[in-house]
Write a structure and sequence with these properties.
about 85% helix
């Protein structure tokens, strides 16, 4: 564990350092915030660095190995229905806990002054990801073309974009962009790689990737459908 922490520290610093430098330059060259505010920012940056370090270490130490193990065992069960149920559950659970999704839902509730509560938005986004991840795993098992699936999904998204009320379109696309973050991405990728490694004659590169792109489309389609039906 300590060796992994040391290995992840440079990676974490490289990820956070540009933001700290840019904000510091803005502070002294443009913004000129009070010393108290700037010190709070620096303290927050330190906490973010520590949190990101622990998060990345935890992903490599436990989440990725367990995800691959789960994917391999599910493929060995040879039950498509079980695999799809687990895929939906993992997509839903990880998205509902995704920090980016929580932030977006909170901002929507605040901007709408409570007209759009955060919890229903979170659950709708999570359900969209769960459904699309289940579709993606179905493709992995059946082996049909990723190009055909993406074409159908994007065509549906474009059609719904013109059919849904215009005020819902920005929220739908923002919902798609915040879904595949620090939790959802590693879990889904690890499970998909585990599944594809067990299925005979399949390529982990061809079948294990692309699921996050499909997962991002799900919330867009679900929100646009709800908006279209409710108009």
């Amino acid at each position: 564990m300590l060796a992994l922490l040391k290995l992840k520290l440079p990676e974490t610093l490289r990820a956070v350092a540009p933001l700290i430098i840019v904000v510091s330059v803005l502070q002294f060259a443009v913004v000129g915030a009070s010393a108290e505010v700037f010190l709070q920012y620096l303290a927050g940056a330190v906490l973010v660095t520590l949190g990101l370090l622990l998060l990345l270490t935890g992903i490599d130490f436990g989440i990725l190995p367990m995800g691959r193990f789960i994917g391999g065992k599910l493929a060995e069960k040879n039950s498509l229905s079980l695999l799809l149920i687990v895929a939906f559950a993992l997509g839903f659970a990880t998205t509902a806990a995704e920090p980016d999704v929580l932030v977006l839902a909170g901002q929507v509730e605040e901007a709408s002054r409570g007209a759009l509560p955060s919890q229903p938005i979170i659950y709708v986004i999570a359900a969209g990801v769960g459904l699309s991840i289940a579709v993606a795993f179905f493709r992995v098992v059946r082996g049909f073309s990723m190009r055909a699936l993406l074409t159908a999904l994007f065509a549906s998204t474009i059609a719904l974009t013109f059919a849904a009320p215009p005020e819902w379109v920005p929220l739908a696309y923002d919902a798609g962009s915040v879904t595949t973050g620090a939790l959802t991405g590693p879990v889904v990728l690890a499970v998909s790689l585990g599944v594809s490694s067990v299925i005979a004659g399949r390529s982990a590169v061809d079948d294990g990737f692309g699921l996050l792109g499909i997962g991002s489309i799900g919330p867009i389609i679900v929100i646009l459908i709800i908006a279209w039906l409710a108009r």
